[in-house]
Design a protein that fits this description.
The chain has about 150 residues and is of the alpha+beta class. Helices cover about 50% and strands about 15% of the residues. A 4-stranded mixed beta sheet has the order 1-2-3-4.
């Protein structure tokens, strides 16, 4: 008799637990649309490799402004929509500006992810050069002196 009573009580607790869990899941699924789901997440603006290059550029050109991750659309434009669409989503790694905010140079830092993209990089450089910019590509972070020699 005690065994039957114990089994009844333990089954009763088991069903109560299952019922509570089921109710919680049902409430969660019904109320979930009312809680906003995060759609946007922060991410680093530049990689560690690019950060080292940014610091080196600042050391080489302390009297100038160094900008990182500059949209091509901030540097070039075209009267033709189809031509603008070719550079609309492109970004250059660095732009060096003088004190009057004139562009002195555009810097591209090619890490190993650029392997196999040489033709695309060449087209990017051609767009910027046609607009009158000097473009410099580096696969390694050059010395302060080398940057000063190249860009002056």
């Amino acid at each position: 008799m005690r065994l039957v009573k114990y089994m009844f009580e333990s089954n009763h607790l088991l069903f109560l637990g299952i019922g509570l869990i089921s109710t919680a899941l049902l409430l969660y699924s019904c109320l979930r649309p009312f809680f906003p789901k995060q759609k946007f997440f922060a991410r680093p603006v530049i990689t560690a490799f690019e950060t080292r290059m940014f610091v080196r550029l600042q050391q080489a050109f302390p009297q100038h402004h160094v900008l990182a991750q500059v949209a091509f659309s901030a540097l070039i434009t075209s009267d033709h929509y189809k031509i603008r669409s070719k550079f609309n989503r492109k970004v250059t790694d660095f732009v060096i500006l003088d004190q009057e905010m004139n562009v002195l140079a555009v810097i591209e830092l090619d890490d190993p992810s650029h392997a196999g993209k040489e033709l695309e990089d060449k087209k990017r450089d051609q767009m910027l050069k046609e607009a009158g910019y000097r473009v410099y590509r580096y696969t390694q972070i050059p010395s302060v002196r080398q940057l000063q020699i190249d860009i002056r």
